[in-house]
Specification:
The chain is mostly helical. The chain has one domain: Ferritin. It has eight helices and no strands. The radius of gyration is 17 Å and the shape is globular. The chain starts with a helix and ends in a 9-residue tail after the last helix.
Length: about 210
Amino acid sequence: MNVRSREEELRAVQMLGLKLPTDPRWVNMAEMDLEEILTDHAYCEQKAATACISLIQAYPEHEELVRDLAPIVTEEWGHFRMVLKELDKRGLKLGRQRKDEYVNKLLAFQKKGSSREERLLERLLTCALIEARSCERFRLLSLNINDEDLKEWYHKFMVAEAGHYRLFLDLAKAYCPEDKVRQRWKEYLQREAEIMEELELRGDRMH
C-alpha cells in the first residue's frame, strides 16, 4: 500500500472514530478462502440481529429504541440470507460458527454491576463499535478484493453498517447524558485499538 493509500485509509477510519486501521494484508488473506470469510460474515449478521432483539426485549419501555431497532432486525437477517445466497451461488458451504474473540474482548470491557440504564449505554456502545469496525472492513473489501462482483456486493454492506453505527450512537445519546456517552465512547475506542493489536490477523474472521 502506497503512502497516499495509507493516508486515505487513516482518514476513512477516523471518520468512524476508530483509532487503528485494519492491516492492509487482511483483504488478501480473506479472499484466499471465501468460504471461511463468508461463513464468519454470515454469523456476524445473525448475531447482529440477535443483539437488536435482545435490546428490544430488555428495554421495551424505550419506544424510540424499539421502533428504530425493529427494522434493523429484519435488515440484519436479510443480510444473513444474502450471505447464504452468495455461498450457494459459488458452490460453497456454510461452516460452523466460531468463537469471536474480538466481540468477546469488547464484552469483557463492559462495566459490570452498573445500573440498568448504564448497562444500556454499555450495550449500545459495544454495538456501535462492532458496526464501525465492520463498516471499515467492508469498505476495504469493496475497494480491494479482486472479484469485481464482490466489490459491489460488499459496498452495500458498508453503507448499511455505517447507518447502524450512527443509529446506536444516537440511541446512546437519546437515553444517556451526552457527556457520559462521549467519555465512555473514548474509552471504548481506546480499548478497541488495543484489542486490534492484541488479536492475530486472520483472513477467516470479519473482525
